[in-house]
Specification:
CATH class of the largest domain in chain A: Mainly Alpha
Shape of chain B: globular
Strand content of chain B: under 5%
Largest interface: A-B, 88 and 96 residues
Strand order of the largest sheet of chain A: 1-2
Number of helices of chain A: 21
CATH architecture of chain B: Orthogonal Bundle
Radius of gyration of chain B: 24 Å
Order of helices and strands of chain A: HHHHHHHHHHHEEHHHHHHHHHH
CATH class of chain B: Mainly Alpha
Oligomer: heterodimer
Number of domains of chain A: 3
Structural class of chain A: mainly alpha
Distance between the termini of chain B: 23 Å
Largest sheet of chain B: none
CATH topology of the largest domain in chain A: MetI-like fold
Order of helices and strands of chain B: HHHHHHHHHHHHH
Radius of gyration of chain A: 31 Å
Number of helices of chain B: 13
Number of strands of chain A: 2
CATH architecture of the largest domain in chain A: Orthogonal Bundle
Number of strands of chain B: 0
Strand content of chain A: under 5%
CATH superfamily of chain B: MetI-like
Chain lengths: 417, 283
């Protein structure tokens, strides 16, 4: 019997099983073809740039390329004591060459990110070396600047001589390598990033909490009112959601600045005097108010869609069984809304943690978040590697939270408007 | 409102307090939009209500900031840019997005979930990171500070929105319609044009609107990828807010609010139409 079933063939003699398998595969390929153009497009315009950024965050080619011989002659150096004359000779020759080719700045800048003072040391040395034509260079270099007689200086050159290092990641968290290759904290006056990471975290958490506190009642109201009225009120949630971010930020400046509408009202009512106008924008307050307003719809909409499905019968049952209103709400109603709370909170938190424009416009000096520092390193300090490392770290964090979000609600359940 | 018989006095009071709280939150959401509109008609170059405006004196209102937009070549230029970049990014994103949504909805497509993840990743990744990556890579390949560079960036950012809206209209798509069309002799292209597209068109259009808004409102990628020549409306507003804030910005903002109202209405109408077409009860 089993022999016979395996013998079933299609008209042209191929076994049925094989033929079916082929047909399925053809169908798979045919449906996959629809995805090829878009996948290719996203790969080229988006995923490769992101991958390029990941690569850039660990890739440190400048020193290796430009101080090739010096790096090579440092390979045998074990870090104890000073390198031998070979390294000094190679460095002196290469500094002269770089000065002549006008590429000294690039390598000096890169070394300066790692150890401040390196830039001036290199340019000073290169300048003075122009008059020195013969070795031995060890004593002459130390004569130019005694830092050439310190292990730290050489350790930095050796460290950045590697093609791949994690120095950018260390700087992103205010850490660095010491002369013996151990990871240590940077001097206190250079520690800026840890503070910003922490600030970004607590601002995002606080904004999420604020959105939840403000959004929950509204979502509840919208879901329980008659459809005609709730649709009308829904406009108050959707219109801000659809309005340009810059429009809303402009408006917050108009409302909150010292000569702004809110201060005018407070002065007019007599709560504050004209001289004591409160500064509510270009600082942390501005960041909080604007971020909460911008992100509130992202909390209300998922909460609304969950609350909408909850039957009022459960609370009624709890009440009839003797629970007081608070208890019935807290023990019966709230647990049913947890999926909405989770979805809304994670969505708001993820958006908040990457916020750039809002803090940049209304945050002033004290309200800047990690994204603003990424932008700063991209366009002002031009330390692209550091910007890439910070971006990669932020991305890793966001993807981890998204993974959580996907576990809880599923990415495909995301809705807008 | 009829209270249940078991409602106590406290509960009734709470009911009104609760409504007031909700009212305040909704006001907080709307305040920035509401305040903007009258201030854009201010006759004085101030960002606050003048005594004349409060007493509804007609002289305190004027259209001077609206005239200012039209007479300022920078604003005109940035509007043109926004429309050009938005137009091409929308066309591309709608095409790529619709195709991908169709592919993802086919029952035989392998690896659907990871592919969906990759395709909507531009929406998931914080925009500053996307902008950073594009900034590094596009400057390497010479696309930085060009129109094509910005259009490609905005297309990538818009595709996820098209995929999501079109996928939503494809849920519950009746597969037998394709077979019916094929059995009546239509080839694939005709089936697409005459059967599939009309059914998913509301989703495609609202996806296109999302893509257009994404591009039109996008500022971070523009900040890093555009040169002076490619500045868009948000870029112009950005420098307006940060450098010298003039009430012209309020007039532009008011126009943008009107624009958002028009878009919101269109999307809502399309959503209803799509539900009707698919035979879902309107919610």
């Amino acid at each position: 019997m089993s022999d016979q079933t395996s013998q079933i063939t299609t008209a042209d003699g191929t076994p049925l099983k094989l033929s079916l398998h082929r047909a399925e595969r053809a169908k798979k390929i045919r449906s996959f073809i629809f995805l090829v153009p878009t996948l290719t497009f996203i790969f080229i315009t988006f995923l490769i740039p992101i991958a390029d950024m990941l690569f850039r965050s660990v890739h440190t080619p400048e020193v290796r390329a430009l101080l090739h011989h010096s790096v090579k002659s440092l390979q045998g150096w074990d870090g104890s004591g000073l390198p031998d004359e070979r390294a000094y000779h190679a460095l002196a020759q290469e500094l002269k060459l770089l000065k002549k080719e006008r590429t000294l700045g690039k390598v000096a800048l890169r070394l300066n990110y790692e150890k401040s003072g390196m830039r001036s040391l290199l340019s000073k040395t290169a300048r003075k070396l122009e008059k020195i034509h013969e070795g031995p260079f060890k004593n002459k270099l130390i004569g130019i600047d005694k830092r050439w007689g310190e292990r730290e200086t050489w350790a930095v050159i050796k460290l950045l001589g590697k093609r791949f290092t994690i120095t950018h990641y260390l700087s992103a968290f205010d850490l660095k390598y010491d002369v013996d290759g151990n990871v240590i904290a940077q001097p206190a006056e250079q520690q800026i990033h840890s503070k910003i990471w922490l600030r970004t975290l607590w601002v995002s958490l606080l904004v999420t909490a604020l959105c939840l506190i403000l959004g929950y009642p509204v979502a509840y109201l919208l879901a329980t009112l008659p459809l005609r009225i709730s649709n009308l009120l829904m406009i108050c949630v959707l219109l801000p959601f659809w309005t340009s971010l810059l429009v809303r930020l402009t408006s917050w400046i108009v409302l909150l600045q010292k000569q702004g509408v809110l201060n005018d009202i407070l002065v007019w009512i007599g709560i504050i005097s004209d001289e004591n106008r409160v500064r509510m924008v270009y600082n942390m307050t501005g960041t909080f108010v604007a971020m909460t307003q911008v992100l509130l719809p992202f909390m209300i909409l998922p909460l609304y869609s969950v609350i909408k499905t909850i039957s009022p019968d459960y609370v009624r049952a709890a009440r009839s069984l003797g629970a007081n209103p608070v208890r019935a709400f807290w023990e019966i109603y709230v647990p049913q809304t947890v999926p909405g709370i989770g979805a809304g909170s994670i969505l708001v938190f993820i958006l908040a943690i990457g916020y750039y424009i809002t803090p940049a416009i209304v945050g002033g000096a004290t309200g800047q978040l990690i994204s603003n520092f990424i932008a700063l390193h991209m366009s002002k300090t031009l330390n692209w590697g550091l910007a890439a490392a910070m971006g990669t770290t932020l991305l890793a964090g966001v993807l981890a939270i998204y993974w959580l979000y996907n576990r809880i609600v599923g990415i495909e359940n995301m809705k807008f408007g | 409102m009829a209270f249940p018989s078991y409602a106590g006095k406290l509960e009734k009071t709470w009911y009104y307090v609760f409504r007031i709280i909700c009212g305040l939150v909704l006001f907080f959401l709307m305040a920035p939009i509401v305040v903007l509109i009258p201030l854009s008609f201010n006759a004085e170059p101030y960002f606050t209500f003048t005594p004349g405006m409060l007493s509804l004196d007609a002289d305190a209102f004027s259209l001077r900031w609206y005239h200012d937009i039209l007479s300022n070549p920078q604003w005109i230029h940035s509007m043109k840019n926004s429309v050009i970049i938005g137009f091409f990014a929308t066309i591309l994103a709608t095409g790529f997005g619709t195709l991908a949504a169709w592919g993802l909805s086919r029952p035989y497509t392998p690896f659907r979930v990871p592919i969906m993840g990759l395709l909507i990743s531009p929406m998931i990744v914080p925009i500053i990171i996307s902008a950073a990556g594009m900034f590094f890579f596009y400057s390497k390949v010479g696309l930085s500070q060009t129109y094509p560079g910005l259009i490609l960036a905005h297309t990538a950012l818009g595709i996820p929105f098209v995929i999501i809206t079109v996928t939503a209209t494809l849920i519950g798509f009746d597969e037998s319609l394709i077979q019916a069309s094929a059995s009546l002799g239509a080839n694939l292209l005709t089936t697409w044009r005459k059967v599939i597209l009309p059914l998913i068109l509301p989703g495609v259009i609202s996806g296109a609107l999302f893509a257009f808004v994404t591009s039109f409102d996008e500022i971070v990628a523009v900040l890093f990828l555009s040169g002076f020549e490619q500045r868009t409306i948000p870029r112009q507003m950005w420098s307006g807010i940060r450098e010298q804030i003039s009430p012209t910005i309020l007039a532009v903002a008011t126009l943008l609010v009107l624009f958002s109202i028009a878009l919101l209405t269109t999307v809502e109408l399309l959503r209803r139409r799509s539900e009707r077409l698919r035979g879902v009860k309107p919610s």
